[in-house]
């Protein structure tokens, strides 16, 4: 069979023609993203909320700066120092635990010092509580007073009587050790309500606490079984 002859193509061949692109039409929907142009009310509300939030943040930040400056100025002017309290003397003549009943007689002398030159202190309430092995066995209220600048006052707290004290095995073991050595670990805490006086201005009441962790010898027949050492107490403003 002979080869079939292909007809000759005149000119260049570029393939089938490409149809023109179809036109698309956009019809905005009811909830579609029309932006502020389509919903100017929501745009205005959003801008208003952002403006209010920005103003509030700026006001709060400005107030914090002003308060910080005032506190810094007051501190530079008054230079407040922490009150210093010492348990200078302690006399323990009875401390006997019998059938969960503690018989005690403790006299404590305290020295409290205000080291500030421009701050006076009103001691509106002073409550002294005595603890042994975490158990409170007595509390007394001391006389309120005003303490002037760079002044020292002397306080006395007397705990005497009997009270029920429930001790576990571990606490009873500590009590037996203290009785053998005639030196007792007694914790005295002072709960205060005070006001500070800055010139003619008085502060609101604050409630600091003073913690005196003491090691007190038992005095028997007029003789101490050990030597009591003056102890500085811890002042806590919280």
From TrEMBL:
It comes from the Eukaryota. Keywords: Membrane, Transmembrane, Transmembrane helix. GO terms for biological process: defense response to other organism. InterPro entries: LEA_2, NDR1-like. GO terms for cellular component: plasma membrane; plasmodesma. It is a single-pass membrane protein. It is found in: Membrane. Residues 110-211 form the Late embryogenesis abundant protein LEA-2 subgroup domain. It holds the Pfam family LEA_2. The chain crosses the membrane at residues 59-78. Its main location: membrane. Signal peptide: none annotated. This is Late embryogenesis abundant protein LEA-2 subgroup domain-containing protein. It comes from Handroanthus impetiginosus. The lineage of its organism: Eukaryota, Viridiplantae, Streptophyta, Embryophyta, Tracheophyta.
């Amino acid at each position: 069979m002979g080869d079939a002859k292909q007809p000759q193509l005149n000119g260049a061949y570029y393939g089938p023609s490409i149809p023109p692109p179809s036109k698309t039409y956009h019809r905005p929907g009811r909830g579609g993203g029309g932006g502020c142009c389509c919903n100017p009310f929501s745009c205005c509300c959003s801008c208003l909320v952002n403006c209010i939030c920005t103003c509030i943040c700026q006001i709060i930040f400005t107030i914090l700066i002003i308060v910080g400056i005032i506190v810094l100025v007051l501190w530079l002017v008054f230079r407040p120092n922490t009150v210093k309290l010492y348990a200078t003397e302690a006399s323990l003549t009875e401390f006997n635990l019998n059938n969960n009943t503690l018989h005690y007689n403790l006299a404590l002398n305290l020295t409290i010092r205000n080291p500030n030159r421009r701050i006076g202190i009103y001691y509106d309430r002073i409550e002294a509580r005595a603890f042994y092995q975490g158990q409170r066995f007595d509390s007394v209220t001391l006389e309120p007073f005003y303490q002037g600048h760079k002044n020292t006052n002397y306080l006395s707290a007397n705990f005497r009587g009997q009270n029920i004290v429930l001790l576990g095995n571990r606490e009873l073991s500590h009590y037996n050790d203290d009785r053998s050595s005639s030196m007792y670990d007694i914790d005295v805490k002072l709960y205060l309500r005070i006001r500070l006086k800055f010139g003619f201005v008085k502060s609101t009441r604050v409630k600091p606490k003073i913690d005196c962790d003491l090691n007190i010898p038992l005095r028997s027949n007029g003789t101490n079984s050990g030597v009591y050492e003056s102890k500085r107490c811890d002042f806590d403003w919280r």
